[in-house]
């Protein structure tokens, strides 16, 4: 992304803000997880003030959606890095809108029992994964450290050898969790 210009910390912060739109639109999909694991409601704390405005202003979601597209994505004066991430957040929001429409049409059939809860949980967990990956990837050095931490956690949990590869940073690390010279290690990746 830096080939179109340099990115400052301020640009990275502004590029992360539009990802709050799909997060707010996707919170209703987490209702079953919030019921089963109340600790997960900590995720909603940073967006509670925005959710208050978002729910009580008529058509706020539509206004924010159009505002981001017309005022940020189409504006050539804003750096490409911010416009790209805003458009990516809008596309994630469109996918969530389509999921919401799907559940409104077929909700009476699908939301009964285990299948509905599973679909809601999958959508919400997928949204969280995309949200955290998108925000963390705005900071490449932090992304490398986060992936190493995640892989080490998985390595300790799974008792396997991991190969961490990040092509953008051109760095390859081999992490041995429990070196045993007499056994062959099974690579996770």
Which sheet architecture does the biggest sheet show?
A: 2 strands, antiparallel
Radius of gyration: 20 Å
Oligomer: single chain
The termini sit apart by 27 Å
| Helix content, binned percent | 55-70%
Class by alpha and beta content: mainly alpha
Helix and strand sequence: HHHHHHHHEE
- Summed up, the domain count is 2
Tally of individual helices: 8
Average pLDDT: 77
Report strand order across the widest sheet: 1-2
Strand content: 5-15%
Number of strands: 2
- Contiguous low-pLDDT stretches (5 residues minimum) are 166-189
Principal-axis shape: globular
Description:
The structure is a single chain. By secondary structure, this protein is mainly α. It folds into 2 domains: 2-138, no CATH class; 140-189, no CATH class. It contains 8 helices and 2 strands, in the order ααααααααββ. A two-stranded antiparallel sheet has the order 1-2. A hairpin with a 4-residue loop joins β1 and β2 (171-175). α1 (9-16) packs parallel to α6 and α2 (20-26) runs parallel beside α6 (80-110). It is globular and about 50 Å long.
């Amino acid at each position: 992304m830096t080939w179109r210009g340099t990115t400052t910390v301020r640009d990275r912060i502004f590029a992360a803000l539009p990802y709050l739109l799909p997060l707010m639109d996707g919170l209703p999909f987490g209702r079953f997880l919030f019921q089963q694991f109340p600790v997960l409601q900590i995720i909603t704390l940073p967006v509670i003030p925005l959710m208050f405005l978002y729910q009580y202003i008529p058509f706020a979601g539509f206004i924010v959606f159009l505002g981001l597209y017309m005022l940020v994505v189409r504006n050539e004066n804003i750096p490409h890095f911010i416009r790209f991430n805003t458009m990516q957040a809008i596309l994630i929001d469109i996918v969530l809108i389509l999921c919401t429409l799907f559940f409104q049409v077929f909700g009476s059939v699908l939301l009964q029992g285990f299948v509905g809860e599973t679909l809601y949980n999958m959508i919400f967990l997928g949204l969280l994964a995309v949200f955290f990956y998108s925000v963390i990837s705005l900071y490449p050095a932090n992304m490398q450290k986060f992936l190493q931490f995640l892989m080490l956690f998985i390595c300790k949990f799974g008792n396997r050898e991991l190969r961490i590869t990040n092509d953008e940073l051109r760095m390859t690390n081999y992490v041995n969790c429990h070196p045993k010279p007499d056994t062959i290690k099974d690579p996770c990746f």
